[in-house]
Amino acid sequence: MIHPRRGWAAAFLLSAALACSASADDPVRRETVRFAKGATAATLHGTVRGYGTADYTLRAKAGQTMTVTMKTTNLASYFNVLPPGSDAAIGRGDLTDNAWTGVLPVDGEYRVQVYLMRSAARRNETARYTLTVGVADAPPGDAKVPGTQYHATGTVPCSFASDPKGSSRCSFGVVRGAAGTATVYLASPGFDAVLHRDAIENVLVFSGGKVRSERPGDNVSAIRDGDSAWFVTVNGTRFYTIPDAVLTGG
Length: 250
Fold this sequence. Notes:
By secondary structure, the chain is mainly beta. It is built from three helices and 17 strands. The protein is globular.
């Protein structure tokens, strides 16, 4: 049996690989992103052709918020955001109209990879692009739960399929970023999000008044539940109530 978390990670890795479709023989241009003194963002210009890619690396910390936007002359060019030591994208421009914001899960060197989709690469097309990468610090005073990446942990109401709404409790861990951005990791009922990372079933990103899933292909709908919480549905079968206090620490 494939555990949901492992299956999700494998699917993410496969989807990112299919999107880039580059081999070890394809040219890769590498560049380190450097912010000007006092700046929190940098704008870069470049070109990719065929199966070539451009990799931009920068060091960042868990809890910081990264924002990546790209303007391009070729509608078949996108970017992936890759965490330290992994090719499983945590951000994908092809799913977010080349504008992504997310809270970073770990310290280390992140990679923003610009590429052409396979069909365009096969035709040896070219894309000229402008890429903007920004990193903002986590809210001041928002301490981590000792021994975890999370700013807070606990449980929230959840339910599945035809079960009464809110009839279960799901363990969560939240990583809060700048400007109200937050990533909520939700474990299956009966599992602890801190102790059982393999049981993380959904990862929801709250940013700019919108909610999305980090898992490709998920259908997420979110409405306000009164004035103090979000009611989130994932694929019509998973239901979560996420209080604002989880997202902001208030």
